[in-house]
Hints:
Elements: H1 2-17, H2 27-59, H3 66-100, E1 108-115, E2 118-123, E3 128-131, E4 133-137, E5 142-148, E6 153-156, E7 164-166, E8 172-176, E9 182-188, E10 200-206, H4 208-219, H5 227-235, E11 265-266, E12 271-272, H6 275-284, H7 302-313
Parallel strand pairs: 1-5, 4-10
Antiparallel strand pairs: 1-2, 2-3, 5-8, 6-7, 6-9, 9-10, 11-12
Amino acid sequence: MLAWGVVAALAAACSSLQQGSLAPKGAGAQRQLDLFYVSLWASTAVVLLTLGLLGYALFRRRRDDDEERFRDTRFIVSFGVVIPLVVLLSMMVVTFASLAGEPQRGTMEVQVVAHQFWWEVFYPEQDFTTANEVHIPVGTKVELVLESDDVIHSFWVPELEGKADLVPGRTNRLVLEASEPGTYRGFCAEYCGLQHANMLFLVIAQPEAEFEEWAAAQARPAAVQDSRGEELFEEHACAGCHTIRGTSADGDFAPDLTHFASRETLGAGILPNERGQLAGWVVNSQTIKPGNEMPPITTLEPDELEALVDYLEKLE
Ligand code: CUA
């Protein structure tokens, strides 16, 4: 009973995380799953056949004459050479066919730059930058241009596509396509330092019109009138690293915060974007995500923190 409880709890946890490559929602993940099943069934057949032959070898009666020796040789050649060759070559053909089915180009481009430990996301066509959230229109082949600013990272959204590495000094490409609207969890799949496990992101697949609306809103400068907030942002050195378009804050070291409040998460996918979490992050993100590049801000008075958080929360 207990065991079943544990299995049920695990299954529930897994389904709510939405990151299973066994439940594909995109063409790439589907292709990989098909290939996985072909390999699974082929290797199951090979294992069963091998066990069957082993049983036969154990229990057969030996005669040890010429006829039997000839039969043994034929047996070894067919089951030791011919059949393995046929199986391995067929697997190779199926794998190459699957690889050949991968689209090389998309109809829309998004640039993703990995940093320790967050994702910078740039839409060249609409000319804006966001972070840790990749919005894509459903049913569109989106070509991701992948680069790294420091060490090797890997971009993986199990439900949509296979992994692709982001390597310093190199540009890799990955075509992402979602067949259903939804929010898909992605994460860094290459060990990249202390907070590798907390380098998450979301891929949000939306109907075309909704996506266009989102992109148009993101491309606009911040429309917030809050001189106190802007002043605090400048005074406490936030502006040295972060950009808020439409204000004097133009740092290019940390996530663009122009439409920060429109994002679902905080700290690269690790916290919900809520007021209390945000205040804690601003004061000392090192207690939440040790080793990230944002220093604690020790100069904020309580009322200043309130005002700063108010301001950030208005950046829709
Ligand atoms: Cu970035 Cu692991």
